[in-house]
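Sequence only, no structure available. Ideas?
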Amino acid sequence: MKEKRREMEDTKITGFFDKDTTITGDLNFKGSFRIDGHFKGKIKSDSTLIIGANGKVEADVQVGYVIIDGEIKGQIQAKDKIEIHASGKVTGTIIAPKLIVEEGAFIEANCQTSDKPPLAALEKKPLEPKIGEPKTGSHL
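Reply:
I predicted one. C-alpha cells follow.
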C-alpha cells in the first residue's frame, strides 16, 4: 500500500515553471516537477523532472527520472532513467542506468549508462622527453 502511495506521489506534478518564468538558484522537490520556462542552477530530487518543449535548463541535475522535451545543458544524473524525446536537446554529460532516446533527438554529450558516478578525470602531465632528446622549446 505504501509503495503505491509513493508511486502516485512521484507521478503527481507538485511544481511547475511556466514558459514566461526565469529562475536562477537551487531547486529541491518531492513529487514531479515540470519546467517550461528558463532555469539555471542546480536541481536535486529523488522524483521525476520533466523539461517541457519550451523549457530551457542550464544546471547540474541529480534526480530519480528525467523526461526531456526541451533543452538542457549540464551534467544530468538519474537514479532510474533518462528519456529524451524527439524534440529534446541535450548538451553535457548523461549518467543513468537506462537511457531512452527517440529518433530526432539532439545529443551532444558524454553518456554513461551506469548508476555509478563518473571517474575523476586524470590530470594530464606533459610527457618528459626521452634521454638524449632535446626538450621542446629549448634552443642549444
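The radius of gyration is 20 Å.
Hope that gets you unstuck.
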